[in-house]
Amino acid sequence: MKKLSETVGIPLATTHVGKYPRPSWYDYDFEDRSPSEVQAHDSTILEQYSDAVKAVFKDQELLGLDILSDGCFRYDEKGFLAEWWVNGFCRMGGLKRWITKPDGDTVIKSVITPECWKEVMSHYPNSHTSPSPPWQWPFWYTVEDEILPGKLDGLVEFYNLTKSFSTKPIKFSIADVILGGYTLVDRYYHDDRETLFALAKVFNRMLTDLATSGCPIIQLDWSLAGLHHVANKTKVRPEVWNEMIELFNEEVKGVNAQVWIHFCFGRLGDSLGLNCAETFKHIADCRADVIQIEAANTRGRFLKDELTNWKEHCPDKEIGLGIVSPYNLNSERPEQAAELIMTALQFVEAERLVLTTDEGFRINRTRSQEKLKTLVEAASIARKSG
Q1: How confident is the model at residue 78 (pLDDT cuts 50, 70, 90)?
Q2: Is 228 exposed, middle or buried (0-12, 13-18, 19+ CB in 10 A)?
Q3: 4-77+152-180+189-385: CATH architecture
Q4: Among 38, 151, 273, 352, which is least packed, fewest CB within 10 Å?
Q5: How far apart are CA 312 and CA 326, in angstroms?
Q6: What is the chain's alpha carbon radius of gyration, rounded to the nearest angstrom?
Q7: pTM of the model
């Protein structure tokens, strides 16, 4: 297990979840193409991408962040969830993409149980039946043959391209591949569990290569198939938790980097009272080094309950704390964000706490910069108070 003291070495280190507003002049979508493929056809596109990443690195450095993110510009701007999976599934061998949902249940349904699946679907109306809602799941996939790495190594190319752009640690953020089980229909393995493990094994090869390339921090978004969401409203059976943890551990087995899990709830967290207090009771065996939770969207209402359960059930894991919201345009005051940090420090040592945003940014670049400035100033206040 890798510690924050090894990868960063700064108490109350600062970063953000990953997604960052693109510069207005950068509008290229890579789809399944790697940097080397693009370079062979049009070198100006790769130059634009490199300049865009350098620009957001400079934003983050000037604002004082300790851990940088490439802004996830390798994602495509096709929709809320497509931007995650179009850079994963469309690169794998053995899968076929569909614009409308193919016949059959998706592979996640039987594994997490229909009750849990129904709970997730209830918060994304029509996502499992609608042809292509523009902000939900515009792409579906079927497994037509053995799942193979295909062009997944293209994601490693993106890291290798950008790692020289800064001397600060760079965090590589990507959706957990098992989350894609909500859009995947199996026509080859005829066993949903086997299908998911095939995905995990292929993804593991890419993550292993990413770590071998020198990536110090890998963040997986919405791991455990969204059970952190489900557990707020539905009792998740122990065997389902165990199944999802086994899948996650298969994904990260032998990956020589610090592995973060990012749990979030979107805009629903505050209004529905969603939090990770229940989740912490079940993830002790999960091979993640840092667990990221949000506190800004909920104004810290559940933070003490969450960290009490963390301390009781899985204190070996370190904590990433969201202290600014990526949604509202009104910037929090640094003093407000610092209050969340001080609450967390009642449970977590400063060396084991990293400060971040609740989620990736979906507001404009100027507002995003203001939010990150608030985050860094809040960290400074907390360090001085300690």
Answers
A1: low
A2: buried
A3: Alpha-Beta Barrel (3.20)
A4: 273
A5: 30
A6: 20
A7: 0.94
